Amino acid sequence: MKKLVLFVIFFWSIGMIIKLFFGFDSNQMEFSEILIKPNFTSWLGRDDYGRDIFYRLIDGFLNSFEIIFSVTVISSLFGISIGIISGYFGGKLDQFIRYITTLFMAFPGILLAIAFAAILDPGKFNLILALSIGGWVGYARLSRAQTILIKNLDFVKASVSMGNSDIKIIINHIFPSIRIPLIVEGTYAIAGLIIAEASLSFIGLGLQAPMASWGGMMRDSVRFLLVSPHYAIFVGLSIMSLVYCINFLGDYFNQKWDIKNNEE
Amino acid sequence: MKNSFSTIFLSSFLQVLGIFIVTFMILHLLPGDPIQVMLGESASLSDQSELRVELGLDQPIYRQIFNSISQIIHGNFGQSILTGAPIKEQILFAMKNTYILALTSLFIAIIFGVTGGVAAAKYKDTLLDKIIISSSLFFISIPHFFLGPLLMLFLSIWLGWLPISGMESSFSIVLPALTLSLGMLAIIIKMTRNCMIEIMNSDSVRTARSKGLSEWSITIHHIFRLVLIPLITIIGMQFGSLLSGAVITETLFSWNGLGMLLVNSIQMRDYPITQACIFVIAISYVVVNLFTEVLYRIVDPRMKDS
Lengths: 264, 306
Prior knowledge:
The complex is a heterodimer. Chain A is elongated, with a radius of gyration of 22 Å. In chain A, helix 4 runs antiparallel to helix 5 (124-151) and helix 8 (214-223) packs antiparallel against helix 9. Chain A is built from nine helices and no strands. By secondary structure, chain A is mainly α. Helices cover 73% and strands 0% of the residues of chain A. By secondary structure, chain B is an all-alpha fold. Helix content of chain B is 78%, strand content 0%. Chain B starts with a helix and ends with a helix. The mean pLDDT of chain B is 82. The A-B interface holds A 99, 102-103, 105-112, 114-116, 118-120, 195, 198-199, 202-205, 215, 218-219, 221-222, 225-226, 229, 232-233, 235-237, 239-240, 243-244, 247, 264 and B 1, 11, 14-16, 18-19, 22-23, 26-27, 30, 37, 141-146, 148-150, 152-153, 157, 239-241, 243-245, 247-248, 251-252, 262-263, 266-267, 271, 274, 278, 281-282, 285-286.
């Protein structure tokens, strides 16, 4: 399993190096080589416009990376702050936040993102917004549950009795103690986001053509399944192997830090 | 888990209210004019005002909320902007197809998942166990939009056994149902196996065995009953992914369900249909969750006390 992970990392590093040093254009078309099979000049073949599939996969990876990085930063910052505040202070505010998170949980999977992406104009910024709207809930629920566990421990009580301010306690004691489960949750969330982003592009709500996106490539490739199955297989394998590696990383963190599932 | 029935019903009711607000009020809450969003900026002013009156958007907001609630209670979702046809019939037709697909997938996943999980646990550490576990790992990590094309490629294009898409023949359901169910099947296998192994080594099973009960009777009465509880939870949780996965799978296989209706309506900018689809999918999810919670208490008598 570790070999597979290393291979995937190696593969995308080579892609990055090619992008950095040779600076290709993934939209360059070769009309004489439409849907050509893999060969030495175009390693993974070419798509229905004669564009190099490998180059488009790299650009798609970079676009996804940008979106998923932004969504993770936005939703984790927002979710964790909300969760800690809710768990630490409790009371009416906590009840209100719990109601809001339950409400968001009523939408299965990517449905909320679909709803927002459908109404907003397509584009990178709105895609990030649509994915973040549902993304913060997981972080908020986990950090709330963890904060409630931590805040009753002796070292936090000691800090309170020493007269430290709430902000100081949250930054110095609460956050460092709940950091590790959040990292594990975040890793799994990123794997889910890759699929969510690709799914949105797949149904035409993600990045618009001619920008390269894995979901968009997947949708295009299905139309040519009969003539060039390699197109769909390469795009699918790229997404799947990356998701698999990130899930593997999540399992690794989980075992390494031996986290018990506290969020019941 | 420790909630009483009344809290569960109350929270489901609040969720329904929340879903209503998100789906039907979202157009009004967003900045900009919803009419312009629907018709595009080039639409003439008379068209715009006509649609505004038709959708009741010229009335004050509390009036609009009241109107939409009373309409939805009567099952009236309004009319399509493009064709003018009532949405209710389209939604009912699509709902029927989606439920057929979802229930078939659920059925496949439960039957094969539980059998596979029990087999893997009974023959733990044999070749059979290893094959079942490693193939289920593969199906857990494969996304719907890749599994679908792969199945099309193997079963329709190369082997020619099944129709590639559409709904014409009665075998058309096999590919989309497999696509939807395999991921869930893998999760059920993994969970059933781990749970079985844990319970097989527990004191209650050892006692049952020492009483001289037959292996079969132990498996059914002592092990399987306990496996049923986490199984119901996981099926309830996975039903959500089944519904959102249906959006992708139906688009892929041209299956005329809610998911395809949703995607088509988004592409046509027919927002009343989009709203109705999202509403119906989210409500089904809440209803299934409610049903799971209730079933949970029936199967596990320990829950009744709390």
